Input
Amino acid sequence: MKDRLFRQTKQRKFILEELKKLKTHPTAEELFLQFKKKMPNLSFSTVYRNLNFLRDKGEILELNLGKYSSRYDADINQHHHFFCLGCNRIFDIYFSSNDMLTRHIEEKLNFKVKYQRRDFYGYCKDCKGKTRDKT
Amino acid sequence: MKDRLFRQTKQRKFILEELKKLKTHPTAEELFLQFKKKMPNLSFSTVYRNLNFLRDKGEILELNLGKYSSRYDADINQHHHFFCLGCNRIFDIYFSSNDMLTRHIEEKLNFKVKYQRRDFYGYCKDCKGKTRDKT
DNA sequence: TTAATTGCAAAACTTTTGCAACGCT
DNA sequence: AGCGTTGCAAAAGTTTTGCAATTAA
Output
């Protein structure tokens, strides 16, 4: 297997820097539209290719929540997400992990857990009162 | 808001019954191909429409793991999933929930958790030895 | 009878890819 | 110079939709 050289292009650098500024977990399209303002001839495929590249290198996270567009997060500290069904915002959930279940999977089932995702869906503080959904 | 009548068609009944027999978390396409053997003029859109219908009614789960095809699960008992990065199989993980984190989100953040997903990715017992990935 | 549902085909939407030109190293 | 990367357009893959015909209630 041959060593591959990776180049630091201005597009790649720009994409990572801008994503790091955002706490909103944007889609590729949202990023593209926003980036285009500062870098007018940036193309959609370059955005996708770099998001995939950065995800593969572990520099960003790709969150595929729904069937449609993935969302991206440049915060790679271990954390979970809360999706508000009311306003569609995504909240970061930081946690201290004392994790029985992971231990169970590794020790009892003899699997190896490489990573995990835990997604919560519900109503945030702001939306809780506004919904008719009282279940 | 008007009451809507839902009909029990033979396609809908068939789709739910067949999915219940499967423990393999198939995609819509896999289901369609398999169903077509027993119901030759079933159409792809009927499969999709009924999977969406059953999901909205809470009778099945739609698991959207990757960017691509959703997978479906007729086991609606609360459980998690383990995705084997080696063989791509999906294992059901049943758990007893004594859940600090959910409680934290509901009590400290004052959010309402409606449902949650926890997905594990790693190597199952069979694949653990075969991979070069020793991290 | 009538409105929900089906089957078919086309459309919609997200993401990837082929290719020539460009630009890091 | 060499080859990774870009921009553009076209393609690929998944899911939804419009519509006339069918069928459950």
Summary: The two ends of chain B are 55 Å apart (CA to CA).
